[in-house]
Specification:
This protein is an alpha/beta fold. Helices cover 29% and strands 24% of the residues.
Length: 354
Amino acid sequence: MAGKIPATVITGFLGAGKTTLVQHMLANANGKRIALIINEFGDLGIDGDLLKGCGIEGCEDDDVMELSNGCICCTVAEDFVPAIEKLLGRENPPDHIVIETSGLALPQPLVRAFNWPEIRSKVTVDGVVTVVDSAAVGEGRFAHNEAAIDAQRATDEMLDHETPLSELFEDQLACADMIILNKADLLSSAQADEIEASLSAGVRSGVQFIRAEMGAVSPRTLLGLGIGAEDDLSARHEVHHHHHHDGEDDHDHHHHEHGHDEFESFQITRDVIEDAEGFADTIARTMRDHGILRLKGFAQVGSKPMRLVIQAVGPRVDTYFDRPLTAAEKGKTDLVVIGQTGLDRVVITAALAG
């Protein structure tokens, strides 16, 4: 691995706190030049926009590359490899590359892509970090948990297998070198111990668990693992999804199926909101009533000059002001809604459009 630029893959389920983790990493980079590749599901680049212009010293807009409206594990040849090549070809290449995947992406195909001849000799996977919303797991909201599966079976006699969401979650854990139990402050110590013990049963031996609040993990902990994950693919195989068959070459780009048709996203644009707290209540109610997995976006509140960031998953809706509004952002609210296929877009839009 000598001479190769290390790359860290940050993966995790929807709303686990990946972007918050990356923001904290950048704020505490201490001069290390970190380039970011942000992959989002949906047209509106919420996470990338949060990181661009973030005001963190050393983080310039051209250090953040967005791959929007697609799953990075499905667009390796078309999007990911060219993005890596662009970073490597810079006059002043980064010290480290951080790739934040969509909450719907499988990490295994992405790690496999580092064996492509165009980049294999120049970059290596330093490690795969999976961020887990430990509070949500504690609530039994992921179907890989046996109790949650039994609860679903009790209400649906046709349910014979784990849902695609649980399979995706398990695959993200199977690929991890480090698992961040984020939002651990919402749990008791005993609850956190129980969750860690439960997840440990489904991960590789030696995988580290770290408990965190608001993604506050030191870059010295996250970076510099030196794993070389692209050389260790057999140990981090997909639990439920198999992208290659005997005789396939690792470099070839093959179509794979892992249930992205189970998900959909759409964008809602409306005018300013007058009451941030009331709008958060509306979001929570709409998510609950329509089975929305994730909602995120930006808003202007009344005549306030600051941009309101909205991040919602499950029953929790977090809002905060992050920076002054730009001219293009004034007077409007942009939201991305993510859920399983079949969302009632008309009703949801009407509920959130004011």
